[in-house]
Amino acid sequence: MPRPELTPAAFGWDTHREEAFVGYRADGLVPGRVVRAERGLCDVVAETGPVRAATSLASHAEDSLSPCTGDWVALRPATATDAATIVTVLPRRTAVVRATASRTSQGQVLAANVDTVAVVVSLADRIRPGRIERLLALAWESGATPVVVLTKADRCADVPQAVAEVSSVAPGVQVLVTSATTGEGMDTVVDALSGTVVLLGPSGVGKSTLGNCLLGEDRLATGAVRSSDGKGRHTTAWRELLPLPTGGVLLDTPGLRGVGVLEVDEGLDQTFPEIIELAGDCRFGDCAHTVEPGCAVLAAVESGDLPQRRLDNYRRLLRENAYAASRTDARLRAERERETKKEIARMRRAINRSGNRKR
């Protein structure tokens, strides 16, 4: 018998998934969860315990169809002559997906079937609002619940100010403060991070240290940041699922050097809710919030109610999202080109009007 902590039930298998799996069982398949994925091979927790399984999916299959850490799969058990094989990836309830650096529209699934996305931010470094907004857009779009965890509070001179700054770019998101050195806030973090939890953030922000605190032991490798630039070294080399002693599962990820957005329309709406609300009062329904008359968003910027930086990053992420979507969609690409021409024309008209007024 496998150890209780190494069964699908310990990794989140529930009655709803079991009911949906009846047809697979009729074909002799069993459920399992991918705890680590490599090229062509996966470590899977199945009913019989941990197994090493090959995948029958084509090597050229899209990343969205390939097994990823956190995926639930239908597994054909090993026989006397054949190794265990993953037959199919079961439908994902949630997925954290980023755009790849290649010139394709194919996304990379960072984590599947997660319940809580913890965006980890170090208080020992300069806070980067744009990076937080970018990660929150991915988190909201995934369908999971985002939480911001501020680490290394013992190295911050003004924690309340830092919390206020982060909260201003994370509306509707719980912001937690922790210190692995002093233990501050860890009980609150344990209570807030439930189900399958993925830690997202660049190297050096303290993800692995935070993970070890959640695990109650030093399971994850940690390393000091470089003194030359304050950046961290990659101590986590792969994505891996680990059961938490308090229940739930931790998905540790390598540090993210760059995070491209892909199909995050809803995620952007939830990351910038005040801009979406203001846009409802714009004179024109297709207002781009650049130079249009009667733009409620620009009026809010002028009055100081909306920071210019936040609007700039919103528009930057919108353009990036639209570009990623148009890479393989001729219609969207043509529409993007038309909108670009319209925006240029609007700006020219605004410049001409401004010049006429000066005369």
Automatic annotation (TrEMBL):
Cofactor section: Zn(2+)
Cofactor detail note: Binds 1 zinc ion per subunit.
Keyword Nucleotide-binding attached: yes
Biological processes per GO annotation: ribosomal small subunit biogenesis
Location in or out of the cell: Cytoplasm
Domain EngC GTPase: 112-257
Gene Ontology MF terms in the entry: GTP binding; GTPase activity; metal ion binding; rRNA binding
Residues reported in the UniProt entry to bind Zn(2+): 282, 287, 289, 295
Entry keyword set: Cytoplasm, GTP-binding, Hydrolase, Metal-binding, Nucleotide-binding, Ribosome biogenesis, RNA-binding, rRNA-binding, Zinc
EC number: 3.6.1.-
GO cellular component assignments: cytoplasm
Residues of the CP-type G domain: 104-259
InterPro entries, per the entry: G_CP_dom (IPR030378), P-loop_NTPase (IPR027417), Ribosome_biogen_GTPase_RsgA (IPR004881), RsgA_GTPase_dom (IPR010914)
Binding positions (GTP): 151-154, 201-209
Annotated Pfam families: RsgA_GTPase (PF03193)
Subunit note: Monomer. Associates with 30S ribosomal subunit, binds 16S rRNA.
Family that this chain belongs to: Belongs to the TRAFAC class YlqF/YawG GTPase family. RsgA subfamily.
Protein function: One of several proteins that assist in the late maturation steps of the functional core of the 30S ribosomal subunit. Helps release RbfA from mature subunits. May play a role in the assembly of ribosomal proteins into the subunit. Circularly permuted GTPase that catalyzes slow GTP hydrolysis, GTPase activity is stimulated by the 30S ribosomal subunit.
Name this protein carries in UniProt: Small ribosomal subunit biogenesis GTPase RsgA
Species this protein is from: Gordonia mangrovi
